[in-house]
Amino acid sequence: MKRKSLSSISMLIIIMLxxxxxxxxxxxxxxxxxxxxxxxxxxxxxxxxxxxPSDTPVPTALPTLxxxxxxxxxxxxxxxxxxxxxxxxxDCNQPIPTKTKGATVQIxxxxxxxxxxxxxxxxxxxxxxxxxxxxxxxxxxxxxxVVTILSGCYWGYGYVSGGKKPSTxxxxxxxxxxxxxxxxxxxxxxxxxxx
Length: 195
Description:
Blueprint: H1 2-19, H2 30-51, E1 104-111, E2 116-123, E3 134-139, E4 144-150, E5 152-161, E6 167-176, E7 182-187, E8 192-194
Protein backbone atom coordinates (compact mmCIF):
# COMPACT_ATOMS: atom_id res chain seq x y z
CA MET A 1 0.00 0.00 0.00
CA LYS A 2 2.88 2.23 0.68
CA ARG A 3 3.89 1.85 -2.93
CA LYS A 4 0.50 2.87 -4.18
CA SER A 5 0.41 5.95 -2.06
CA LEU A 6 3.95 6.94 -3.09
CA SER A 7 3.13 6.61 -6.75
CA SER A 8 -0.11 8.53 -6.23
CA ILE A 9 1.73 11.32 -4.44
CA SER A 10 4.44 11.38 -7.12
CA MET A 11 1.82 11.61 -9.83
CA LEU A 12 0.05 14.41 -7.97
CA ILE A 13 3.32 16.39 -7.62
CA ILE A 14 4.07 16.02 -11.35
CA ILE A 15 0.59 17.25 -12.28
CA MET A 16 0.91 20.21 -9.92
CA LEU A 17 4.32 21.18 -11.29
CA UNK A 18 3.10 20.99 -14.86
CA UNK A 19 0.17 23.21 -13.99
CA UNK A 20 2.48 25.81 -12.42
CA UNK A 21 4.61 26.38 -15.57
CA UNK A 22 5.40 29.85 -16.96
CA UNK A 23 2.53 31.86 -18.35
CA UNK A 24 2.39 32.16 -22.15
CA UNK A 25 3.62 35.42 -23.77
CA UNK A 26 0.68 37.73 -24.33
CA UNK A 27 -0.06 38.47 -28.00
CA UNK A 28 -2.05 41.27 -29.61
CA UNK A 29 -5.32 40.38 -31.11
CA UNK A 30 -6.16 41.36 -34.70
CA UNK A 31 -8.46 44.10 -33.48
CA UNK A 32 -5.68 45.52 -31.24
CA UNK A 33 -3.29 45.62 -34.23
CA UNK A 34 -5.92 47.37 -36.36
CA UNK A 35 -6.63 49.88 -33.60
CA UNK A 36 -2.89 50.74 -33.44
CA UNK A 37 -2.18 50.81 -37.20
CA UNK A 38 -5.19 52.86 -38.29
CA UNK A 39 -4.20 56.08 -36.44
CA UNK A 40 -0.62 55.80 -37.79
CA UNK A 41 -1.84 55.42 -41.37
CA UNK A 42 -4.29 58.29 -41.01
CA UNK A 43 -1.56 60.57 -39.58
CA UNK A 44 0.75 59.79 -42.52
CA UNK A 45 -2.10 60.41 -44.96
CA UNK A 46 -2.88 63.78 -43.34
CA UNK A 47 0.79 64.84 -43.45
CA UNK A 48 1.09 63.85 -47.13
CA UNK A 49 -2.10 65.70 -47.98
CA UNK A 50 -0.83 68.81 -46.18
CA UNK A 51 2.47 68.70 -48.12
CA UNK A 52 0.75 68.89 -51.53
CA PRO A 53 0.89 72.49 -52.80
CA SER A 54 -2.40 74.21 -53.19
CA ASP A 55 -3.58 75.89 -56.38
CA THR A 56 -2.41 79.46 -55.81
CA PRO A 57 -3.63 81.83 -58.50
CA VAL A 58 -0.87 83.47 -60.53
CA PRO A 59 -1.16 87.24 -60.62
CA THR A 60 -2.09 88.43 -64.09
CA ALA A 61 -0.81 91.98 -63.78
CA LEU A 62 2.80 92.66 -62.92
CA PRO A 63 3.62 95.59 -60.70
CA THR A 64 4.86 98.68 -62.51
CA LEU A 65 8.23 100.04 -61.56
CA UNK A 66 9.26 103.65 -61.52
CA UNK A 67 11.36 104.64 -64.55
CA UNK A 68 15.10 104.74 -64.03
CA UNK A 69 16.72 108.16 -64.08
CA UNK A 70 18.66 109.03 -67.22
CA UNK A 71 22.21 110.26 -67.03
CA UNK A 72 23.55 112.62 -69.63
CA UNK A 73 26.98 111.66 -70.97
CA UNK A 74 29.51 114.37 -71.58
CA UNK A 75 30.80 112.72 -74.74
CA UNK A 76 28.50 110.81 -77.03
CA UNK A 77 29.34 107.16 -77.43
CA UNK A 78 29.50 106.03 -81.04
CA UNK A 79 28.79 102.47 -82.01
CA UNK A 80 31.78 100.68 -83.55
CA UNK A 81 31.90 100.85 -87.31
CA UNK A 82 31.59 97.41 -88.89
CA UNK A 83 33.04 96.90 -92.34
CA UNK A 84 30.43 94.94 -94.33
CA UNK A 85 33.18 93.62 -96.65
CA UNK A 86 35.38 92.34 -93.79
CA UNK A 87 35.89 88.59 -93.44
CA UNK A 88 34.67 87.07 -90.18
CA UNK A 89 37.20 86.18 -87.50
CA UNK A 90 38.18 82.51 -87.50
CA ASP A 91 38.01 80.52 -84.25
CA CYS A 92 41.37 78.72 -84.04
CA ASN A 93 40.30 76.64 -81.03
CA GLN A 94 38.22 74.23 -83.12
CA PRO A 95 39.44 70.96 -84.70
CA ILE A 96 41.25 71.39 -88.02
CA PRO A 97 38.94 70.75 -91.00
CA THR A 98 39.56 67.44 -92.78
CA LYS A 99 40.31 69.17 -96.08
CA THR A 100 42.62 72.18 -96.11
CA LYS A 101 44.02 74.28 -98.98
CA GLY A 102 47.02 75.94 -97.32
CA ALA A 103 50.68 74.86 -97.41
CA THR A 104 51.51 71.84 -95.23
CA VAL A 105 54.63 70.63 -93.45
CA GLN A 106 55.64 67.23 -92.13
CA ILE A 107 56.70 66.81 -88.52
CA UNK A 108 58.06 63.75 -86.72
CA UNK A 109 56.56 63.39 -83.24
CA UNK A 110 58.84 61.45 -80.85
CA UNK A 111 57.50 60.37 -77.43
CA UNK A 112 60.26 60.24 -74.78
CA UNK A 113 58.01 61.06 -71.83
CA UNK A 114 58.01 57.64 -70.18
CA UNK A 115 54.27 57.14 -70.69
CA UNK A 116 51.43 57.53 -73.17
CA UNK A 117 50.82 61.08 -74.44
CA UNK A 118 47.61 62.77 -75.54
CA UNK A 119 49.06 65.64 -77.60
CA UNK A 120 47.22 68.76 -78.78
CA UNK A 121 48.80 71.27 -81.15
CA UNK A 122 46.88 74.44 -81.99
CA UNK A 123 47.62 77.20 -84.45
CA UNK A 124 48.21 80.64 -82.92
CA UNK A 125 46.55 82.40 -85.86
CA UNK A 126 44.91 81.63 -89.18
CA UNK A 127 46.96 81.27 -92.37
CA UNK A 128 46.42 83.50 -95.42
CA UNK A 129 43.44 81.34 -96.47
CA UNK A 130 41.71 81.75 -93.10
CA UNK A 131 42.49 78.16 -92.02
CA UNK A 132 43.48 77.31 -88.45
CA UNK A 133 42.55 74.96 -85.64
CA UNK A 134 43.78 72.28 -83.25
CA UNK A 135 45.33 68.89 -84.06
CA UNK A 136 45.09 65.96 -81.63
CA UNK A 137 47.46 62.97 -81.56
CA UNK A 138 47.91 59.96 -79.29
CA UNK A 139 51.36 58.39 -78.88
CA UNK A 140 52.39 55.33 -76.91
CA UNK A 141 55.63 55.35 -74.87
CA UNK A 142 58.72 55.51 -77.14
CA UNK A 143 56.54 55.79 -80.25
CA UNK A 144 57.44 58.10 -83.12
CA UNK A 145 55.17 59.04 -86.02
CA VAL A 146 55.37 61.44 -88.98
CA VAL A 147 52.28 63.63 -89.44
CA THR A 148 51.30 66.32 -91.94
CA ILE A 149 49.95 69.61 -90.56
CA LEU A 150 49.25 73.11 -91.87
CA SER A 151 52.24 75.43 -92.07
CA GLY A 152 52.21 77.98 -89.24
CA CYS A 153 53.05 78.71 -85.61
CA TYR A 154 51.65 76.43 -82.90
CA TRP A 155 51.28 75.99 -79.18
CA GLY A 156 51.64 72.44 -77.85
CA TYR A 157 50.22 70.65 -74.83
CA GLY A 158 50.59 66.97 -73.94
CA TYR A 159 49.08 65.02 -71.07
CA VAL A 160 51.41 62.17 -70.06
CA SER A 161 49.81 59.14 -68.38
CA GLY A 162 51.01 55.64 -67.55
CA GLY A 163 54.50 56.78 -66.53
CA LYS A 164 55.87 57.21 -63.04
CA LYS A 165 53.29 59.92 -62.41
CA PRO A 166 50.90 61.87 -64.64
CA SER A 167 52.40 65.11 -65.95
CA THR A 168 51.97 67.74 -68.63
CA UNK A 169 54.40 68.57 -71.36
CA UNK A 170 54.00 71.94 -73.04
CA UNK A 171 55.56 74.47 -75.35
CA UNK A 172 54.48 78.06 -75.91
CA UNK A 173 55.31 78.77 -79.54
CA UNK A 174 56.86 76.62 -82.26
CA UNK A 175 56.82 77.68 -85.88
CA UNK A 176 56.71 75.07 -88.64
CA UNK A 177 56.94 76.87 -91.96
CA UNK A 178 59.68 75.10 -93.96
CA UNK A 179 57.81 72.78 -96.33
CA UNK A 180 61.02 71.18 -97.64
CA UNK A 181 62.15 69.42 -94.45
CA UNK A 182 60.68 67.17 -91.76
CA UNK A 183 61.38 68.54 -88.26
CA UNK A 184 61.46 66.32 -85.19
CA UNK A 185 59.47 67.34 -82.13
CA UNK A 186 60.40 65.43 -78.97
CA UNK A 187 57.81 65.18 -76.18
CA UNK A 188 59.26 64.77 -72.70
CA UNK A 189 57.55 64.40 -69.33
CA UNK A 190 57.54 68.17 -68.69
CA UNK A 191 58.63 69.90 -71.92
CA UNK A 192 58.67 69.45 -75.65
CA UNK A 193 60.95 70.88 -78.31
CA UNK A 194 62.74 70.33 -81.60
CA UNK A 195 65.36 67.56 -81.91
